[in-house]
Design brief:
2 copies of one chain form a homodimer. Chain A is an alpha/beta fold and about 290 residues long. Chains A and B meet through α3, β2, α8, α9 and α12 of A and α3, β2, α8, α9 and α12 of B.
Chain lengths: ~290, ~290
Amino acid sequence: MPKHPVGRRSETLRELLRLPPGERVDLAGHDARATPGARDGKQAAQAATAHTGRRLARLQERLWAAGTAGDHRRVLLVLQGMDTSGKGGTVKHVIGQLNPSGCRIRAFKAPTEEERRHDFLWRVRGALPAPGEIGIFDRSHYEDVLIARVRHLATPAEVGSRYGLINDFERELAEEGVTLVKCFLHISYEEQKRRLLRRLERPDKHWKFAPSDIDERALWPAYQEAYELALERCAAPYAPWYLVPADHKWYRNWAISRLLLEHLRELDPRYPEAGFDVAECRERLLKQT
Amino acid sequence: MPKHPVGRRSETLRELLRLPPGERVDLAGHDARATPGARDGKQAAQAATAHTGRRLARLQERLWAAGTAGDHRRVLLVLQGMDTSGKGGTVKHVIGQLNPSGCRIRAFKAPTEEERRHDFLWRVRGALPAPGEIGIFDRSHYEDVLIARVRHLATPAEVGSRYGLINDFERELAEEGVTLVKCFLHISYEEQKRRLLRRLERPDKHWKFAPSDIDERALWPAYQEAYELALERCAAPYAPWYLVPADHKWYRNWAISRLLLEHLRELDPRYPEAGFDVAECRERLLKQT
C-alpha cells in the first residue's frame, strides 16, 4: 500500500518525497511500486517528463549564463540505489534532456589505488560542479557508509565517523551555493530479480551483469539497513534526501525531472545584465566593413 | 557557388567534406552557405538528424559496452571555428542526442596560470576520452596555432613547431584507438555579423557577447589564414579535417551527426560476449528467495 498520500494540488513533490531529517527510516514501509503525485498514470507522466525536460533545459541555460557573470550557484544531483535501481537510466532519460555542456557527470566505482590513498571525500571534491553547472553523481560519497559498512571495507568506528563528516561536507557545499538534490531510488527485492534476469536473458545486456551482483543481492537486508541509517543521519534541511519509488521507470523519470524542476525554479537563475554598452557595441559592429 | 559536388548516392559525407591532406586550403573558395550532400533541403535534413541521433545513441551504447570489456577504442570530436560558428550549438543539438554518461565534453578557454606552466598539449591530454567514450572538444589544441599565431601569444618559431607536435600527438592518439573527427565550422564574415548583432539585440543573449568579440572580428583575414595553415598542415589520413559549411545551422547539425555516424559505423563496436556462465548465474539467481 502506498505510504505517500496522493497529495493536494498545491503540494510540491519535494514535500511528498522528502524524508524528514532525523526521523527513523523504515524502507520496508515504503512501497517501491507507489507513484506519489503522479495522478494521471504512465502516459501522462511520460508526456509531462518531456515537457519538464524542456523547462529544465531553459532554466539550465539561465543558471549557466548567471554563472558566467559571477553567480556561484549550481546543482548537485546525487543518485543512490541498489544495483538495477535505475541510476544510469536516470542519467540517460532525465539528464539526457539537458544541454550536455552544462552537466558534469561522474560515476563512482570502487576507489582506485590513488583514491584510496586519500580521505574518502577527496575524489568527490574533485568531481563537483562548477558555478552554473548541474553535477550528477551516479553513486557518491554515500558508498563509503553503504558498501563500506556492509562489506567491512572500513572499521565500524571509521564508518561511524563518516556520517558527521558527510554532514559537514554537505553543509559546506550548501554554503558555497550548491543545491543538493539527493535521490534514493527505492526498488523492491522482487523487481531487482526481474531486472537481473532480464540482463541475463538478453545478450545485449550481458555487459551490464556481473556474477558478483548475485552475491551483493544476497546481502539485501544489510544494504537496506545501511541505507536506512544513511538516509536518517544525513538528511538535513540544506541537503534533503528524497525517497523515489523506482519500480516504475516512468515514475522515477517523472519524479526526478520534477524534483530538479522544483529546485531550479526556486533558484530562479537570471540572465545577467550586459556588462558593456550595448548601443556602442552595435555601432562599432555595424561600422566594420 | 558551392565548391562541393552534390555527390553520388554512394559517396559518403566523409569523402565530400574531407580536406585532402597536404593540399593548400583556400577558405574563400568554399561557400559557407553550401549544403553538400543534403539533397532534400532543411526539413528533410532536420528529420534525418533526429533519426541519425537515435542511431548514434545505439552505436554509442555498443562502444561503451565494448569499452567495459577491454576494447580501447573511442571517438574524439574536435570542433573549431570562428566566434558564433556554432560549436556550442553543435554540442547542444548533436551531442545532446547521445547518452551524456558516455560523453566527455571539454570547452577550452584561455589557458589558466597552471596550464600555462605546462606544454600546450598538457591540458588536452587531461581531457581525452577514456575507452568507450565519445570525447568532444569545443576548441582544442588548435587554438595554440590559431589565436596564438594571430595574437602573437608565442614566438613564430614556437608556433611553427607546433604543427609537427600536433601531428605526432594525433598519430599517437590514433594508435591508441582514438578515432579523430575534426570539424572546422566554416561561417562567412557576413553571417558572423548577423549572429553577433542578434546577440546584442536579445537581452537573453547578452551573456554570450563580449566587446572583445568585435576586436577579434577585425582580425578575420589573419584568422582565416591561420586556419588555412592549420587545416593544411594537420590533415592526416589518421586525423582528417572536415570542412563543414556552417552558415545554415540545420546543415551543420545534419553534417556533423552524419560524420559521427559514418565513423561509428566503420568502428562497428560490438556488445561483448558474457565473461561468465549465463545459465549458472540464472540458476543461482532463481534459487535466491
